[in-house]
Design goal:
mainly alpha, Alpha-Beta Plaits, Alpha-lytic protease prodomain-like, 2 domains, three-stranded mixed sheet, 9 helices, 61% helix
Amino acid sequence: MAHEHPHEHSHDAHDHAAAHAHAGHHHPAPANFNRAFAIGIALNTGFVAVEAWYGWQVNSLALLADAGHNLSDVAGLLLAWMAALAARLQPDARHTYGWQRASILAAFTNAVLLLVAMGSLGWEALQRLGSPEPTQGWTIITVAAIGIVGNTATALLFLRGGEHDLNVRGAFLHMAADALVSLGVVIGGALYLWQGWGWLDPVMSLGIAAVIVAGTWGLLRQSLHLLFDGVPEHVDLPAVQAWLEAQPRVARVDDLHVWAMSTTRVALTAHLVMPQGHPGDDFLREVSQGLREHFGIQHVTLQTVTEPMLQSCHERPHP
């Protein structure tokens, strides 16, 4: 809610509080990906079993590594799904924002899982390079081709939400990475049939791991940034400050804070210094609406004051 400076009349403060209590709550509901998560988990769990069995049967590092990678993806999808469900839990007296941040934590954990899986794959590939072993090309090609179809289909289920939800983007990257790995395995199997290169299997694994690590690094960096209340990348903080200060009767803006409540919702708090006094509830509603429309900030809390506060959140208290 927005509050008045103590110099303002008490009835104005009360009206302001009642009218502006949760302006940020009027936002579109996040997309529901329950069906996508359920299908993705089912498809990948079945494929892990098939891929691990045949990888063991034909002694293919690429298939076994891909099966391990897919298993980490099943765990990642479960984690992302639980986080998406947790984010829908209603706030209570103990968790006034609810459990929305679970989606950011899931995106971060998802990235870590993928990097660990690729590190393990890379290490095993380096070990195998020293002593290449024969395998069966057609079996590798067939199993990996099934993986391409299943992983691509799963990735497409999350495609439409990846631009707006970091948690869903993490799930999409996992599935897209799986499809890429499977494609590399198919190519490796074909080249093995053609040339009989025993070293190709581990080399392809190393190359695929490098590509996936490069693609996952951004997800890790962004999710870690949001976990520490960093300003979301799509929000230009100086532009927000300038826009607020350009509003009628606003002399300056103090204690401006913008952070991510979840992978889809952004919050803002600020002091609006307005020497002429309370501007009225309509003004505050318009400002909140403008922040949503121009900057994608859904949860807005503004405190109006007639003069700057003696100490801002950025200043250290005097000893």
